[in-house]
Design a protein that fits this description.
Blueprint (H helix, E strand, L loop, with lengths): L5 E4 L3 H12 L5 E3 L3 H9 L3 E2 L3 H7 L2 E4 L4 H9 L13 E4 L5 H15 L2 E4 L2 E2 L1 H7 L2 E6 L2 H11 L3 E8 L3 H29 L7 H5 L7 H12 L8 H18 L4 H18 L14
Parallel strand pairs: 1-2, 1-4, 2-3, 4-5, 5-6, 8-9
Antiparallel strand pairs: 7-8
Helix pairs in contact: 1-6, 8-10, 8-11, 8-12, 11-12
Length: 290
């Protein structure tokens, strides 16, 4: 794929990782961050800056969004110098942010009606390590044709790429993913806290449970970090607070009670309110250290 075909907008933890993966695969993506310093390391490696989302949409066949909030997705799409200003119907917007399914449907419908541009919602699971290794899981909403159009590009990023239904289905699936992930962080923290309190070597739990029914990728990745009290930045507590809020909105519209998720969401907000929102998700262990 040519160097001019893809732009990554949003250069936080995940956006940086996705752009670096494209560079490692021999692509030279265009990039757009809120601050020049997020763009600089990527430009030094061969990426190209764009001045605005409008420029990205006007010059690229694929524009990938990795933005922190639904409001940011809407602003980048329809704000001043937003994607819609380009009016280039060939562009396929691929929103890999975690956002509201209803908003996704509204934005995609409006963008197509006003410009002819296409939209896939393709939220991810696997974090920055998954992006850098090309092993992400992508849950996708949109048309079959657009899904197949994006496959060669997204194949650089993922090992599991599934069309879940029409526009918004990817975001709805991500809500379910976040229930499983967000609640598991707390289960792991609680189990490790009990291990430490009862004299069990918590650092051995990932090894002893490997291959058994208690095993999981989250245990293998986060268990040792939680046991050691030392963690990598693979996602922020404040981001999970945002995701739990979206989950609660979706569940309320569907009339579905989520009592276990509500407990995890409340605990997440406790840490966020204590000023730990910028800490990695593994830092939920701090609640058990007080």
């Amino acid at each position: 794929m040519s160097a001019s075909k893809v732009c990554v907008i949003g250069l936080g933890i995940m956006g940086q990782a996705v752009a670096r993966r494209f560079l490692d695969c021999g692509l030279a993506p265009r990039v757009r961050g809120r601050r020049p310093e997020t763009e600089d390391p990527l430009v030094a490696q061969g990426a190209t800056r764009v001045a605005s989302p409008a420029e990205a949409a006007a010059t690229c066949d694929y524009v990938i969004l990795l933005l922190p909030t639904p409001e940011a997705v809407e602003h980048v799409t329809f704000g001043t110098d937003g994607i819609a200003a380009a009016g280039r119907r060939e562009t396929l917007v691929i929103d890999m942010s975690t956002t509201d399914p209803d908003l996704t449907r509204r934005l995609a419908s409006r963008l197509h009606a006003e410009t002819g541009m296409r939209w896939l919602d393709a939220p991810l699971s696997g974090g920055a390590p998954g992006a850098l290794s090309g092993t992400l899981t992508l849950m996708v909403g949109g048309s079959e044709a657009d899904f197949e159009d994006a496959r060669p590009l997204l194949g650089h990023l993922c090992s599991n790429y599934t069309l879940m239904g029409p526009t918004g289905a990817g975001q709805s699936t991500k809500m379910i993913n976040q229930i499983l992930v967000g609640c598991t962080y707390w289960v792991l923290a609680e189990a490790i806290a009990l291990a430490k309190r009862t004299g069990v070597d918590a650092g051995k739990l990932a090894a002893v449970f490997k291959g058994g029914r208690a095993d999981s990728r989250l245990l293998q990745e986060f268990g040792p970090m939680m046991a050691a009290g030392s963690w990598e930045q693979t996602g922020k507590i404040s981001s999970m607070v945002k995701d739990f809020g979206l989950i609660e909105q979706v569940a309320a519209k569907a009339g579905q009670p989520l009592p276990m998720t509500a407990v995890a969401a409340a605990l997440q907000r406790v840490l966020n309110n204590r000023g730990l929102g910028e800490e990695p998700n593994a830092a939920v262990m701090k609640l058990y250290e007080d």
